[in-house]
Amino acid sequence: MARSVDGVDPVDRLHQAGESLKFMAMDLDTDGIERLIAAAKLASGKAYSPYSKFRVGAAVLTSDGEVFSGCNVENASYGLTICAERNAIFQAVAAGQRGLQAVVVYTPTPTPTAPCGACRQVANEFGPKAWIICVCDGVGRIESTVDSLLPRAFGPENLK
Predict the structure, then answer these.
(1) Distance (Å, rounded) from C-alpha 124 to C-alpha 153?
(2) Which among 19, 85, 125, 157 is annotated as catalytic?
(3) Where would a tag sit more exposed on the chain, N or C end, judged by fewer CB atoms within 10 A?
(4) Does the global pTM surpass 0.85?
């Protein structure tokens, strides 16, 4: 059973609240999640990670139902490296999208890896209520929301 970082099954949480697993404008069913996972896995194969050897792929689902993917791109000047999640989000933004419904992160590891703080902050900019689904080569999965992974986040509303 999938568990979020707080140990509660997010689908159970929604069902207890009388809600379905809806992501803004559309339902994200099992096929939709699998499509995002496939896109994230494909993107991980394109990662440029000669230093860490940690190939990460991500796929984002926008509010308009479009999917964008990205991979991590490392740099010899380590601080200039970009994570897969931010790469995918920036691809969506470059295409004119501004709202996120879901972010899927794939790592070729035995346990799932959650997004780093910078990726959480960028995801918060475009989808504070978006789902984050982290998958791996093992059976584990992290399912949470951006606002659960980054509580009391700084965001656009703080600049008003």
Answers:
(1) 7
(2) 85
(3) C
(4) no
Closest C-alpha among 79, 104, 77, 80 to residue 92: 104
Report the alpha-carbon distance of residue 22 to residue 11 in Å, rounded: 10
Element (H, E) at 134: strand 131-136
The model's pLDDT over 89-121, given as tens digits with 9 standing for 90+, comes to 999 999 999 999 999 999 999 999 999 999 999
Decide if 85 is catalytic.
Answer: yes
- The domains found in the chain, sorted by start residue, are 10-146 (3.40.140.10)
Q: Report the C-alpha gap between 55 and 10 in whole angstroms.
A: 27
The β-bridge partners of 73 are 48, 82
